[in-house]
Design goal:
There is one protein chain. By secondary structure, the protein is an all-alpha fold. The chain contains two helices and no strands. Helix 1 runs antiparallel to helix 2.
C-alpha cells in the first residue's frame, strides 16, 4: 500500500493587532457640572434644614426636607451614570 502524504502544518500566525476604538467625548460636557451641582444642592438643603431647626428651606414640609435633600443627591448619582 502506498504511503500517504504527510500534511505540513502551517506555522502559527498571531491574529492581527486590534486598533484602539476611538472614543467620542462629544456631548457629555454637561454631566460633571450637573452631577456636582445636584450633590451640592442636596447637601446644602440638608445642612440648611438642620442649621435653621426646620424653619428653612420649606417649613411646611417638616422632616420631608431631608428626603428632598437626599433626592437631589440621588439625582446626582443618577446623572453620574452618564459620565464617560
Amino acid at each position: 500500500m502506498p504511503k500517504s502524504r504527510i500534511r505540513k502544518k502551517a506555522d502559527y500566525t498571531p491574529p492581527p493587532a486590534k486598533q484602539a476604538a476611538s472614543i467620542k467625548l462629544e456631548g457629555r460636557g454637561w454631566v460633571a457640572p450637573v452631577m456636582l451641582a445636584l450633590f451640592l444642592i442636596g447637601l446644602a438643603w440638608i445642612v440648611v434644614f438642620y442649621v435653621t431647626d426646620g424653619s428653612l428651606p420649606i417649613e411646611a414640609l417638616g422632616n420631608v426636607n431631608i428626603v428632598v435633600g437626599f433626592g437631589f443627591i440621588a439625582a446626582g448619582f443618577a446623572v453620574s451614570t452618564q459620565w464617560k
